Amino acid sequence: MESRREALKLWLAGAVGMPAMTSRAAAASLNDDLASAQETSCGQSVVQWPRGIEGQRKADLGDGRYLNPVLAGDYPDPSVLKDGDDYYMTHSSFDASPGLLIWHSRDLVNWRPIGPALRKPLGTCFAVDIAKHGNRYFIYIPFMAAAWSKGLRSFANIYVIHAPSMHGPWSDPIDLGVTDLIDPGHVVGEDGERYLFFNDGKRVRLSRDGLATAGPVEAVYQAWRYPETWITEAYAPEGPKLFRRGDYFYLVNAVGGTGGPPTGHMVVAARSKSINGPWEHCPHNPIVRTTTAEERWWSRGHATCVEGQDGRWFMVYHGFENGYRTLGRQTLLEPIEWTPDGWFRATGADLSRPLRKPLGSTVPNGLQRSDDFVDLSLGTRWSLYASAPGEAGRVRTQAGALLLAGKGDGPHNCSPLTQQVGDRAYDVSVDVELVGGAEAGLVLFFNDRLFLGMGIDGQQMRSYRGGKLSYWREPAPATRRLHMRIVNNHQIVTFYYSLDGKTWTRHGVRSEVSGYNANTVDDLLSLRPALFAAGKGEARFRRYRYRALS
Predict the structure, then answer these.
(1) What is the assigned CATH class of domain 53-356?
(2) Which stretches make up the Beta-xylosidase C-terminal Concanavalin A-like domain (predicted)?
(3) pLDDT tier for residue 46 given thresholds of 50, 70 and 90
(4) Is pLDDT of 146 > 80?
């Protein structure tokens, strides 16, 4: 590693970022908002991120440039709507309830949360599409049947919700009667009719109000196929996003599989002068693809194309961060350029370097993760995992505490309260008190098969690793109230506990958690902090604190 002095010289020349050991005073003298970190692992170039709320990394460098991700953490399958000078975005929310958190931006880089559009999911929520038609807003949703789902026709079911504003109020989901398809993409044809495209080249015409189908599902398109020698997860054409520019409709697809090998997922495009085809494949396909495991961003795909305020165009898509698959698929922004023959090319390369920021005013960026539980922030700061629509009543706030009613007999089946994170290293803590015959605690939760953390039942501490109760018997005091803390320091996880929240005892076992990712348990989620309460009582949580580490 270079010396701090050498790194400082290079940073001042605009070549690299400051090393992680730089003192706060030295960093402040350069830029009060810029926290810099140097990395040389995996052959990656030096990177730097500003620090926002609670030290969370953010994309806007403050000098007319940005550094991906624009939304750090598990925000996959982005769907973006340009509405005048405003941009709105949401993502696959899967088993989160409430779901479909709406984000707002005016420059595609700084995003603030508005609130959840889907108060009561009917199933696992896959990739959606936001649309505006007339003066009304629509979100087309594929619900996958979950264990707690009721009344769904099939394993995959297409619904729609609508509202007079992106701020809501949003309607209850309306069944479109389309089954066994996912990833709807809305478009208005040259005939003025509305259509939904789906995975695997399927399409259906909609009624004029967009709330019903007006014809059969038909096959209308075959996505570009890559050479058989390429290393991918599966062909799997999905995520169609359509837009019209000039004389052409453009159809942007994802192929190659969203997980699996880092070189699998990719963005491909086609165009046609009619919504009915024929579709011509882009000669530049794939538009985006990770070509080597040395790149910073893996499995890049599922893109929405959108025009910036200055006429420049961009793609918003997702990708896994090299070395940090535990964070899930994060939202990336890449510029594109239009070629003289009417196609577009990606110009951001592997996105490990800062890029020129789109024009537009800046909205307050980010979301505070810490919580004093004055208000119940379900759907923004917290969400229930795999929770049936009526279960939100398990959660309430009272006198600066969050009360969570027990369910099941452990973290795996209690629908814990989870929180997204986007930092490579962080420290979380909370004050846990038992009420009645509950077990409760703090965990890092991937899904019901993979988690780790601590719980107390009044008699002993229970330790969890690998999605199950650990053999380790931690000699923590028998108590009904305990402060718990988890530090995830670049995939090394350490537990702490305290009776007073001041003097901490380190748990006897540390864990390395890079394997807690989608490829381990075939589930496209992320490792994130969670509060759980199991059994017949409830738990009272106070003073939850989140702090990003450099």
Answers:
(1) mainly beta
(2) 370-513
(3) low
(4) yes
